[in-house]
Amino acid sequence: MFGLGWGEIAALIVLALLVFGPDKLPQAAAQAGRTLRNLRRMANNARDDLRAGLGPEFQNFDPADLNPRTFVRKHLLDDLEDTWNDKPQELEPATAPYSPEPVVDELGYGEVPPYDSEAT
What we know:
By secondary structure, the protein is mainly α. The chain has helices at residues 6-54, 68-84.
């Protein structure tokens, strides 16, 4: 829950008891619950208003897609993961024979290799 362990949760409960006292703590928790419920309702209404204002073309719009990490994951990595999970296609036989000998231009003794000033 929010990356908190049992020790942190217990410390927060003790801190809440010290700040609010045992008699005010239930009222503070109820008020926090109402506030959280109102914020959630406001966020859902804003999302629905945004979808209605954008029109039928954006019925599948999710505001979480505006997060760059989610956008990249959804539009780039999902396609890659789909292709990673596909069965490999059988390769067609090559028409030209494979030549394992690479072409190497060797420098003679004392020769200076070519220098490209734009590459460095």
